[in-house]
Task: structure prediction
Amino acid sequence: DADVTQTPRNRITKTGKRIMLECSQTKGHDRMYWYRQDPGLGLRLIYYSFDVKDINKGEISDGYSVSRQAQAKFSLSLESAIPNQTALYFCATSDSQYGEQFFGPGTRLTVL
Amino acid sequence: EDQVTQSPEALRLQEGESSSLNCSYTVSGLRGLFWYRQDPGKGPEFLFTLYSAGEEKEKERLKATLTKKESFLHITAPKPEDSATYLCAAPPSGATNKLIFGTGTLLAVQP
Result:
């Protein structure tokens, strides 16, 4: 089984809809991250969390919110989706301050 | 401003034709330079971490090296299965627990 899972893997929605993307991990890591990936722009950090009580904004948090329900679960919400939020979304985990991050398989989100 | 820049954007090689990918960074007090491989439709997969100038790490046909301003990913005698996007990343200056990613090099190895 995959260590970092994301659901759904693909989602098509309409402008104005609320969307939740979910991430679960079995690696036992405290640190979890949400990124979006756009062609030509690379991976950009949306939010990150060091534990269930610690949530931090990344470089592009506007229009997004997150919830850390447990050590193993980190959800990303788009309160009112807009077309320029169409992108690939990745969840990642890490077990140390300077350590590598381990990525999930991604969610392809299309906002019409 | 902290930046991680990769070149070239895309590289096409013949099988067996060795080459190098470049990652330059303008982060002060580097606390790690990370290389990832990303296949289409998948999440990035960790390859290497380098921490100090002069350090080298190898995995199969890949070797990563680090200087004070840049890192290279050398690919020796590549095979078609090495085709992927290669990403590099580094923590921003004065920050931990985060990474700044380059936009990647798309490598295509033709048989």
Residues 3 and 59 of chain A are 26 Å apart (CA to CA). Chain A is about 0% helix and 60% strand. The interface with chain B takes residues 4, 31, 33, 40-45, 48, 50, 58, 90, 92, 94, 97-106, 108 of chain A (CB under 8 Å).
